[in-house]
Amino acid sequence: xxxxLSFRDVWVEYGDRIIIEKLNLDxxxxxxVSVVGPSGAGKSSFLRLILGQEGPSRxxxxxxxxxxxxxxxxxxxxxxxxxxVFPHLSALRNTILGVECEKAPVLGRLFGSxxxxxxxxxxEMLTAVGLGHSLDLYPAQMSGGMQQRLAIxxxxxxxxxxxLLDEPxxxxxxxxxxxxxxxxxxxxxxxxxxxxxxxxxxxxxFTLGTRVLALDKRRHDPHAPHRFGATVVYDLPMRERAEASxxxxxxxxxxxxxxx
Length: 260
Ligand SMILES: Nc1ncnc2c1ncn2[C@@H]1O[C@H](COP(=O)(O)OP(=O)(O)OP(=O)(O)O)[C@@H](O)[C@H]1O
Description:
Helices cover about 30% and strands about 25% of the residues. By secondary structure, the chain is of the alpha/beta class. A hairpin with a 2-residue loop joins strand 1 (about 5-15) and strand 2 (about 15-30).
């Protein structure tokens, strides 16, 4: 598989606070990368770099060998733990909005056949995430799991190549989480996505990822905790289990590689 994203000597600094230091990493097209690490290690900052919400203070990130611009593009979609859907819009309107923002960035609205096409795309995506019968429901009428399905549809309707997930299932009950795990793996395959998912749940990281990255500091200065930043301290390629679906929790095999 070819390299999609490449980080070369990437640093993220806020003033004299170093958050990420000297990050060197390649992410292959089609990978499902889980990112774990202690609170404050810089996992969300890492996602923001890929999303283009912020640029590195030093170093270069490339997408298809082209330097990534510090702006969000349609090739990258994101789902957060909460609050990414609009409460005053139905599921269908929430999802159509994704297409409208993409195709009519100035007016934010499509008309005529373009609007009908957007409606069809949104309906197809809502059906793919299991909300085909809930098009007219508002977020307040939906469970947490349904709202996250909607957030995923909203992100995927723009047909991104890269889907970024920031603790997407963290607020859900365990049973619902298992359903969401199956859903996200299916969508990953169906739409040939490259996924980068931040999670605090180690089991989730290993269950879903084809690769698990641990971000942490290699060096600590107790007198100046912000002097050193985090980088990839473990990079664990998971051998793909045979068409995992229902048996996802079994027989996890890892090749451990310690990054020095
Ligand atoms: N815009 C900013 N200005 C200054 N510091 C920031 C900014 N954004 C993030 N930070 C700091 O960067 C560090 C890393 O934050 P980040 O949210 O990336 O960590 P995280 O690993 O995702 O944490 P958590 O697991 O708790 O969500 C934190 O100490 C945070 O306070």
